[in-house]
């Protein structure tokens, strides 16, 4: 932050109602509201970031349960003290279980590994207990600032209530106005919305739009995002061609760039 101030680059906080539009092939325009004023900026490149949220697709495809976190505006997996998910034998460690940073992720990996080794009887109960306590202390220390950071830098309210002309599903180029119209017409969940508009059916498989879709449905139906739900995730988790599927046999494997 000190380097930013010394560089004399303008810095604005409390920004809301962000909108980005293309003016030309190599020119973009950003408009926003901050400090009670409407501002506009033009640039060749614009980056937009509203925080990091857990990747859900792999765990959801295995049937793991998730719950809504109203502070980070994201779905996080249900885990026990050993980081085991709602599906026995599946452990979720690191940022996939909730954003905590690299060092907290290392500690969570150790906690999950110790739990697995203990169940396989590869380490003694005493060694498992000692290792767990040490890893848990490290994890707690690294996660200690998170409650403050999550509340201090909570995503702006406009994330949950984008403008009607905002593009929500970038893969299929579907705007917020169309989505709200579908919900008003009776669409009551993300899976049904696929049939209405094909949201979440592009190359990203709903990774980019899924959480926003859930928030839009929840807001318009006046229910919680948990009740609104999320896309049902099925394999393959990345797009594959018809040719790749046709070439499959019981003993064959998908190419490395088509992971399931």
From TrEMBL:
This is (2Fe-2S)-binding protein. Keywords: Oxidoreductase. GO terms for molecular function: oxidoreductase activity. InterPro entries: BFD-like_2Fe2S-bd_dom_sf, FAD/NAD-bd_sf, Metab_Enz_Cyan_OpOx_G3PDH, SoxA_A3. Gene3D superfamilies: BFD-like [2Fe-2S]-binding domain (1.10.10.1100), FAD/NAD(P)-binding domain (3.50.50.60). Residues 172-246 form the SoxA A3 domain. The keyword Oxidoreductase applies.
């Amino acid at each position: 932050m000190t380097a930013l101030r010394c560089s004399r680059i303008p810095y604005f906080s409390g920004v809301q109602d962000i909108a980005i539009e293309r003016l030309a092939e190599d020119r973009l325009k950003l408009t926003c509201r901050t400090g009670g004023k409407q501002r506009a900026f033009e640039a060749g490149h614009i980056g937009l970031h509203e925080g990091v949220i857990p990747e859900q697709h792999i765990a959801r495809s295995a049937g793991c349960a998730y719950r809504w976190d109203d502070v980070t505006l994201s779905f996080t997996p249900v885990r026990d003290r050993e980081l085991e998910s709602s599906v026995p034998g599946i452990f979720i460690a690191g940022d996939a279980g909730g954003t905590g940073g690299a060092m907290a992720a290392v500690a969570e990996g150790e906690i999950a590994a110790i739990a697995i080794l203990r169940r396989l009887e590869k380490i003694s109960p005493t060694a498992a207990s000692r290792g767990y306590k040490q890893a848990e202390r490290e994890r707690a220390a690294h996660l200690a600032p998170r409650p403050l950071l999550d509340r201090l830098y909570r995503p702006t309210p406009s994330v949950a209530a984008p403008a009607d002309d905002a593009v929500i599903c970038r893969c299929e180029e579907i705007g917020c106005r169309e989505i709200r119209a579908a919900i008003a017409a009776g669409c009551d969940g993300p899976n049904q919305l696929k049939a209405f508009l094909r949201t979440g059916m592009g190359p990203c498989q709903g990774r980019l739009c899924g959480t926003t879709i859930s928030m839009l449905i929840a807001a318009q139906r006046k229910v919680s995002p948990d009740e609104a739900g999320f896309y049902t995730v099925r394999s393959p988790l990345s797009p594959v061609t018809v040719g790749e599927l046709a070439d499959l046999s019981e003993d064959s494997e998908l190419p490395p760039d088509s992971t399931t």
